[in-house]
Design goal:
Blueprint (H helix, E strand, L loop, with lengths): L1 E4 L9 H10 L4 E10 L8 E4 L5 E3 L7 H14 L3 E6 L3 H6 L5 E9 L2 H12 L4 E8 L5 E5 L4 E4 L5 H17 L11 E7 L4 E5 L3 H13 L2 E5 L16 E3 L3 H8 L5 E5 L4 H11 L6 E4 L3 H13 L4 H4 L15 H16 L12
Parallel strand pairs: 1-10, 11-12, 11-14, 12-13, 14-15
Antiparallel strand pairs: 2-3, 2-6, 3-4, 5-6, 7-8, 7-10, 8-9
Helix pairs in contact: 6-11, 7-8
Amino acid sequence: MKLYFGKGFVMQDILATVEGWLKRGDRVALATVVSTWGSSPRPAGAKLAVTPDMAMIGSVSGGCVESAVIQEALDSLSDGVPRLLHFGVGDDTAWEVGLTCGGTIDVLVEPLDTGWWAQSAALVSAQRAFVTVTVIAPLKGAKLLISAEGIVLYASPDLPESFRRAVVQAARGAAQSHRGQIALDQTYDVLIDVFKPQPRLVMVGGSHVGMAMARIARILGWHIALVEPRQAFATRARFPDVDEISHAYPDKALPELGIDSNSYVVVLTHDPKIDDPALRVVLPSDVPYVGILSSKRAHQIRVERLSKAGLPPALLEGIHVPVGIDIGASTPEEIALCIMAEMIAVRHGVRPRRKVVMT
């Protein structure tokens, strides 16, 4: 048995185009990167969709094996048979398609399973987390769609019930960490890929660092919310990239925003009248990241102040202070970069999530 993990279910990259094709009645073939080694430019889970008239969207290699994959995709639409393609630097085919810089890539090509696609597309549109499990062998292309809670939402009819039960636990683990443990019949090779909703950056305070963070977060595809009761600091002219702006104080604004396990909070004001209410709301919640732009000395005073106000000391642990990855940052743009890098590291499990302490 081989177990592959995708680097993030990237269906959203091709979703709108494929939906348009399907509504038009086009047949679609889907190519998915199963595994890579070496210099392959696209990660496991990357996808390319193709129609019979050679319209295409997405990429499995950044261009170097696309021509060969597209031809196989057209063939799969003709005969209805999925196929697993392998390109390696030692293969003659690799030189023909341009994979000459070292590495290997395995790509599963199949006619699109429209039942699985329809349910997956609905979950992506609703920003719901889920896991898709694709069998690579022996039932090439057979699929399971599993919610973050471990509920099977779709299963290919030819998958045995024992397989479905065994894979659910691995899918739930992958939903939390992009990794999991699995015990399956040795005949199965599977790709486990995770879709996580668009992450949300919640900034408290309309500072220059926040302005730079908003620009970076927009490039990265994050949803951005700004809480700043001082209206002059939170205008559309200063923050054109922000999706939501609230001029309420954080103790009112944050519950209205609905912060959750997909929200990453950074406090930027240096004003206790704004910082402290924000922390009293977010620290008891399940947000995975809370950072404060502050010196260690100022934070110690903050901790003493909040403790006296009745906030349990255990809740104050896990706050990122000084905030961000240490890269020697000094300008607002550099500081914004190091904060965003730290949040990304937490999101992808490279750094630990904040522990939620029940009170």
